[in-house]
Amino acid sequence: MASVVGTYARAFADVVMKPGSHLDPAGAQAELHSIEGLLKESDQLRRVLENPSIPGEQKRAVLDVITKRLGTSRQVRNFVAVVTDHRRLPLFGEILKQLEQELNDRQGFAEAQISSARQLSDAEKRFLEAEITKLTGKKVQPRYEQDASLLGGAVVQVGSTIYDGSVKGQLERIREQLVED
Q1: CB 139 within 8 A of CB 109
Q2: Quick check: pTM over 0.85?
Q3: Cα(100)–Cα(97) distance, rounded to whole angstroms?
Q4: Among the listed residues 25, 43, 21, the one whose alpha carbon sits nearest the alpha carbon of residue 33
Q5: Which tens digits make up the pLDDT trace of 15-71?
Q6: Are residues 34 and 71 in the same domain?
């Protein structure tokens, strides 16, 4: 299913990033997340849109009412209609995650999960973000969280790469060296 998810995400990223497109990538994602929220909140809505016995025209009419109330762009409405028509709505959340990654890659952004033992000051955050930018060559979109088990320092994850500068990580590496010797 990963290839199906990627196909839909790349196709919509093409629409969003097309030269002359009036869609803001962040705005389009926000609109899609609003629709995802409605689908999560309303089992009845989700069942109607996923039901193969309900004609596509009726599903699109329901979708038109919803997107009009939300003020959704035509492109986002059409994308959700295509996903619904092709019976991929159960994959909608995965498609959105892949779309975020695709848009970040195309815009030169890197998402960074930064865990620290304590709340970081603004200056520390700026320093960390600058260092991550140097390492990745991309603009950083950070997400911060606290993890007291780190004891000190920070752990940064960008994609599948982990940079461990925590006291806990250093102690673990020392322990491994002692066990090896």
Answers
A1: yes
A2: no
A3: 5
A4: 25
A5: 999 988 888 999 999 999 999 999 999 999 999 999 999 999 999 999 999 999 999
A6: yes
Residue 94 sits in the same domain as residue 31: yes
Cβ contact 87:52 at 8 Å: yes
C-alpha count within 13 angstroms, C-beta hemisphere, residue 159:
11
133-164 tens-digit pLDDT: 998 888 888 999 999 888 888 899 988 888 88
In terms of residue numbers, what domain contains 38? 2-105
Q: What would the pLDDT profile of 102-128 be if each residue is shown by its tens digit? A: 998 899 888 899 999 899 999 999 999
Distance separating alpha carbons of residues 133 and 149, to the nearest angstrom: 26
Strand stretches in 58-173, DSSP E: 109-116, 139-146, 154-158, 161-164
Q: How many domains does the chain have?
A: 2
Which burial class, exposed, middle or buried, applies to 65 when counting CB atoms under 10 A from its CB (0-12, 13-18, 19+)? exposed
